[in-house]
Amino acid sequence: MTANSSSLSRLIARIRKLNDWLDGPHRTQQQQQSIIPPFPGPWGFLTSGYMLGLIVMAVLMHRIQNIVVPPRHRARRFPRPQSRHTFEQFAYRAIFPLDFSSSLVRLVLRLPTLYFLSKSLLLWFTTLAQAAHKFPSSDRLLSLASWVARYDTAALCWFTFCAVCGALCVEALARGLEGANSNASPFNLFGYAFLLHIYSSPITHGTKLQDLPSRPDKHVVFTIILPLLQLAIVHCLGIKKSWSNHRLIPSAFVSIIALIHFHWVLWFSDTTYPLLNYMPCLFESILLFVTFLAIFLTAFTQIVAEGTVSRPLFGHHAVLLPRLDEDFSIALLRMGTASLETSSVAGLGNEVSDVAVMPPVRDQTEVGTVALSRFGVDSISHSLDGYGRNRRAKKGFANEIKNVKATSNDGDLWLDLAWFREFVKFTVGVARFFKQLYTLSRDFLRSPRMRPQSFSNTQDTAPLDDYLQGERVDGQDVYDRFIRGEQLSDDEYDEYEPTSRSCSSSVESLSSISDNVESNAYDDQIETVSLYADLSSVIATSTSASHLLAHLADHSPSPLTRRRFGQLVSRSSPGPQCQDIKDGWTDVMHARRPNTVVSRPEDAPMKQEGTVSYVLWNRVRLFAGRVDVLRFAMIAEKIWRLVRPCQNTRVPVVEQTSKDTPRYTFPRAQAHNRVKFMLYFVFRYWKQ
């Protein structure tokens, strides 16, 4: 039993040894991976202390810029304290309020941040010398070298970030108390924090020493030192008030050193330049090249052509030249943009900026424009009159050109702009031509003349055409009977039915529109017969003749009303005949109107005998006999059929006016009856 247990334990021990031997390399790899930290990524930066510091700085800077402002009235210093005041009050009154124009006060305010910035610069410069193996082997600096060598890189990056944040806060606070511009010290704090976060990880370090913290590459350390050095110089210049805004010189010094370092690493070094600062340096290099090229070409042209530089190197040199109170990168960007916009156009194109012109009023004519270049006339646009489809180009002396435009021919080296412009105009003209041709063709094809008539439509409209033709024949028959002098009466049409109604079976299949046409035509027939019957009837009385004679003989400016006509007849032939002429309207007028009519002198000749009226009437009848009455009747009949008056009252209505004279009026709804009434009296007068 004991032997079996001992053999089993030996077997288990051998299995464990085999298992340890097989898992040995994998376990060692896991231990190494646990020692090496992961590469810091964007999400790691968002959850790091740098991001928290950026948020705190954003809130703090915003509050300082909006709250810390100088008072409107400077407070006077306290008077000399008396002996009964304590020492604390004396010290307080001796210090406050602070005089920010004093360099001592400004130095004391910046001493803490200057200390932290100086310490950071000392650590980074020592680290740079150690990474480049250029640190001096002096016994005096041995303690400094050992202290910096044992300083952790992550702690050094975090200390630098805190020093930069403190310097920015003190700078904003001092400028707020002075009343200066709060944005006078631009600093990319976000980019600098991301740079420190990336190179604080050991995985990005290129220099690793035994039993010492690893260090980044020497070029990375140099790129970290440059922004810190610029901030420290600007912070030191803020001690003196007259130098506090001079940022151009330190920013230009640091930027030039950064560009020199960039091109030296790019062209002459085997190592690579840090990617986080690669694009800013490349962009500044391009701007510098464009600016210096424009300056050189402008100066060379003036020296060769004139012998001296007579014009400034830029169009507005007072605005484009950098100032002492701005950053070098901002001035470089403005000068580079101005160099890119420099053109060879002389005159207004190079001296005057664009002028905003109000759009023309819609009622005004668009004047022509001529484009001039250094080679002469480039293009001419005609004056345009009208808008939309009615727009027409003026030609000749009407083409007034008022606008002159300066153009450049630089693009002609790659493309013939004049030919391209004319080709576009030709293409637009051809497109408009085909569009109008398509519109005309479509309208022509849609016209009624081009529509094919179907067989069914021909059959349906045939009975209606026959019916209308029969109506025209019947109308001509009535007119012939009227010319022959036969007796006409509308009673003969009371029981009249068209022949087409009883003979043609296809009329029943017509629509309601055809029925309405038939009824209207039938009513027109009855009305035509009634009119001819009235015209052909012989009136024995001389009332119509008297009406015509009175209108011909009356020369007064006022209208000849029924009342005046009755007075004329009663004065010329008094007797029982006068009472027959006066109708019910005369009785109503005499009953309701006061008798205020006064006889006029021009009515005296009408009091003569009736023989005068008889002689005048005979002359009128002889004159009327010479007129072609039949032709006039035919024309009147055509007018009558065009007017088509309604079947309503034909008698005019007499209204009273303000001058006690009646006048003929017609209802507004019976506009056609007015024409009918006029034709009625005209035919009666000419017939008699």
TrEMBL record:
Biological processes per GO annotation: protein ubiquitination; ubiquitin-dependent protein catabolic process
MF GO annotations: ubiquitin protein ligase activity
Keyword Phosphoprotein on entry: no
Annotated TM spans: 49-69, 115-132, 153-174, 219-239, 248-266, 286-305
Entry annotated with the keyword Membrane: yes
Signal peptide: none
Organism: Boletus edulis BED1
Highest rank taxon of the organism: Eukaryota
Protein name as it appears in the record: Uncharacterized protein
Keywords: Membrane, Transmembrane, Transmembrane helix
